[in-house]
Design brief:
Layout lengths: L38 H16 L5 H8 L4 H43 L5 E2 L2 E2 L1 E3 L6 E3 L4 H21 L27
Length: 190
């Protein structure tokens, strides 16, 4: 019911024939009671980000007023959310590319581990008599195999870090305190 004492509503603000933004009470919330991001809010945030890009010098307070955010902090958080959403596909693609490269390096390390390495000194194969048969056999060199194992382990560690598979270490502390009164017989206390 109009009393005639309401302040005039600017034409570009809700109330002048436009639909108002959802109020804080009507916005969707998640299971923890926090505001949930909906398709409508994502669109509004994208429009605000586009407006900010097209109009350099716009303040977050102006964005809040123009797009119906609660305050400039909410407008800033909305723009940050849009930035993350825009960057996420590129980051996902980068992680996949890095994963493929690490997989290729790991396969190369495994191939080196499986090869037969012999000791060469001054351009000649070093041999040793086999105690069972008495014939000369090339001396096996474990150095390249051990280096390949270390490389394979480092590649796997890089892969785990890239994918976030390493869980942070947790330390559990438990125990209790026991008090002992010295010099008094517990039977005398009762």
């Amino acid at each position: 019911m109009d009393t005639g004492n309401e302040p005039p509503v600017p034409a570009d603000r809700p109330g002048a024939g436009q639909t108002a933004e959802p109020t804080l009470q009507s916005r969707t919330r998640d299971g923890r009671g926090k505001f949930a991001r909906t398709i409508d809010t994502a669109r509004r945030d994208a429009e605000a980000a586009e407006y900010l890009a097209d109009h350099p010098g716009t303040t977050y307070r102006e964005l809040a007023e123009r797009f119906g955010y609660y305050d400039r902090g909410t407008a800033w958080r909305a723009i940050q959310a849009v930035k993350v959403e825009v960057v996420r596909p590129a980051v996902t693609k980068l992680i996949e590319t890095e994963s493929e490269e690490l997989d290729a390096l790991y396969v190369m390390a495994l191939e080196i581990i499986e090869r037969n390495h012999i000791v060469v000194s001054h351009g000649k194969v070093v041999t040793m008599k086999d105690p069972e048969t008495g014939e000369e056999k090339p001396l096996q060199d474990d150095g390249p195999r051990l280096q390949a194992i270390q490389t394979a382990l480092r590649v796997r560690e890089s892969y785990r870090k890239l994918r976030g598979l390493d869980q942070p270490s947790q330390v559990a502390v438990s125990g209790g305190v026991k008090y002992e009164v010295v010099g008094i017989d517990p039977a005398d206390l009762t």
